[in-house]
Amino acid sequence: MMILSLCLRPLLSLVGTNGMLEPWLQSKGLNDADQVLAYFAVSKLGEPPVDGKTDTNPEGLTAAYGKWASAIATRLHAGGLSCKVLDKEAFQKQMLEKLIWISAFMLVGARHHGATVGDVEKEFRPEVSSLIAELASAAAGEKGITFEEAMEDRLCAYSRAVAHFPTAVKEFKWRNGWFYSISEKAIAEGRPDPCPLHTAWLKELKVV
Q: Signal: is it a keyword of this entry (predicted)?
């Protein structure tokens, strides 16, 4: 989990994540906290950030939501990074898409001895495609939403943009753990596991 704090004004808490923060925010009474979906990264100290611009989304993927979303977008634009301002529903869909991306690509990569994100997109596309579809269906059912078409294309395009990133299943509680909790709930209620491939591969890697 990543927490970003920017001094836009006193007491402003800005949250950015590569995982599912909604349950934690709700537990703290922060349902309407300003949030940023950060599609940029810095490889190491001193290097310029790599923006989340892809061949399917050349305008960039970073997004902000909340009262101060426009202010943070202005700050990021000033630093040469893209950022769009979204309403809560649109932001939630994009947040879930990124959660699906990191959960799917990290898990498939870990199955193949730590392949890079680019390796997964190029060499193991059938596996990651199946997992993306499974996780997207589970997330849509859990949240009662409908994702925009061509999610797989968007997520694979982002993977090409950050192809050198390594893969590993980590921060389980905030990433794959959210999908596993959906599986556990379904099984406890006597229903089929909505994410059987995901569950099987987590067990294969002895994550659960």
A: yes
Given a cut of 60, is residue 7 above it in pLDDT? no
Q: What is the pLDDT of residue 159?
A: 95
- Indicate whether 124 pLDDT > 80: yes
pTM of the model: 0.88
Kindly list the distances between the CA atom of residue 136 and the CA atoms of 120, 126, 166, in Å, as whole numbers in the listed order: 18, 15, 23
Give tens-digit pLDDT for 131-188.
999 999 999 999 999 999 999 999 999 999 989 889 999 999 999 999 999 999 999 9
Report the C-alpha gap between 111 and 144 in whole angstroms.
31
- Neighbouring C-beta atoms of residue 203, cutoff 10 Å: 10
CATH topology of domain 89-204: N-(1-d-carboxylethyl)-l-norvaline Dehydrogenase; domain 2 (1.10.1040)
Q: Where are the domains of the chain?
A: 14-87, 89-204
